[in-house]
User: What shape does this take?
Amino acid sequence: MNVRMAVLSRRERDRGQVTIEFLGMTPLIILTLVLMWQFALVGYTFSLAGNAADEAVRAGTAAAPGGARTAACQQAGLDKLDGAWKGDAKVTCEGTGFVTADVTLKVPVLFPGSIGFPFTVHGHAGAVEEAKH
Assistant: This one.
């Protein structure tokens, strides 16, 4: 009977160990998930910046040089951006013959529309101007 009591006593002492270990690991699990989500937002912002630059330069090469080109380029660059990225977006277009577009976006922290991450993402594209006949 003493052996059985010793075993039961040890089991009873270890009863809450799994709960304590899980509570200790919870902050690390949450931190890992937050970092993975933030890296996903950084990657998505890179994708948005590249696509916005492509769209901007495509519209810029089809428009007439001058103010119309700049306006068309900026409009096309901002057109497909979501509200969270559109607010601080900067689109610049320049060139004659070979048109380039640069897009700068701020990376949101955790959720689009929240405070900005401490760095920005740049997208760049270039294309030859379309010939007018």
Summary: The two ends are 103 Å apart (CA to CA). The chain has a mean pLDDT of 82.
